[in-house]
Structure prediction request, 399 residues.
Amino acid sequence: MINDIFQKILVLSVEGSILGLVVFLIAKIFRDKLPSKARYFMYILVFIKLILPIDFKSIFSIFNFIGTNKLIDSSRNLGESVLFNGSSNSNFSLFTCLCVIWILGMISFSAYILMFYYNLKIKVYKYQVEIDDDSIYDISQECFEKTNIAKDTEVVFSAAIKSPFVFGFGNPLIVLPYTLLNDMTKDQIKQVIVHEAMHIKLRHNIIKHIITIVNIIQWFNPLVWIFSKLVQKEAEFDCDYEVTRKYEADDKCVYTSALLTMAVHENNNLASLSFGESNLKVRISSVLNRKSLSKTASIISIFILCILSLSFLTAANENRASITPEASTNQELNSTDTIPNTTASQPSDINIDTNGINLSIPGINIHAGENGVNLSGPGFNINAEDKEVNINGQQFNNK
Prediction:
């Protein structure tokens, strides 16, 4: 049972990696043509493929031409053919050993991440700093109203962190470094809070935790970790766009200045969606040179997402009409079964007695005796001695 689950995980890992590489190439080639949200959703499709065993079969599936199931089946058969001696005269296959390693890896990563979250939460609240400035509360409420998230969302200032982030997913916190109060103006702090609030509105914090679960399950695949970094970067670009798409030039300058200030406090970790993430130069350039999204770009983005979904999120159609050499041979063999074959059921027979020699082969009887040679079969009779021929009841005599 567990071996079957591991085999399915391997299939999803291979297929998801193929989709991820295709998305990476599309995002790389058409980066200036596609909006950040389209690139972000393309990477989300990758993680959907990595975690969900979708059995919806389609003739449009790319896996009709890429036999990932057969590849993993062959690998499993090879792995199960290699046996190791265990205790009590029991044997373990190589595939079973790999499955055990996979389970132990998941347990280890789960324990590490849970411990990391627990320690981070302790650190945030242990070094929490109470702020008596009512203007910070007013700024927070203004940002929550602007992003349309719950106004009771808690904003926490902590002296133990260096970069702002969103923590949690049920009742998420916006955690800000205490040093912001000295290093930034109130307008810059406002941009930081609205950015983190936008992450909550766009459900980036929830998606981040789902991706973490995928990382735990697919921990053995290095491409999955790379895709996690890429989707996190696209989430930052998407958030920047949503925050600044209605901004005037002055507001964009304040926003980018906040990015520059936070760059020195950059903090890339598992739990955070950080305002001061990497790719600073690209993000600032993207904000300052932002252009309105054209209808053509929107249509192209939707088209690409539909094609990727139809091609990669569907399973191979096993009953598709395709004739392979092996299938063609089988069809020929099957077709011969429908043709009556008298040779298979009537073996040759030779009898020698006092009357002469009698040879019986399928469909024909030959007798050689005192009266000459007689050849008979279905519908005919030939007597060489009497020179008499009988065909379908008509006699011909040539004496």
User: Anything to note?
Assistant: The chain has two domains: 2-84+91-316, 349-397. Residues 349-397 form one domain. The mean pLDDT is 78.
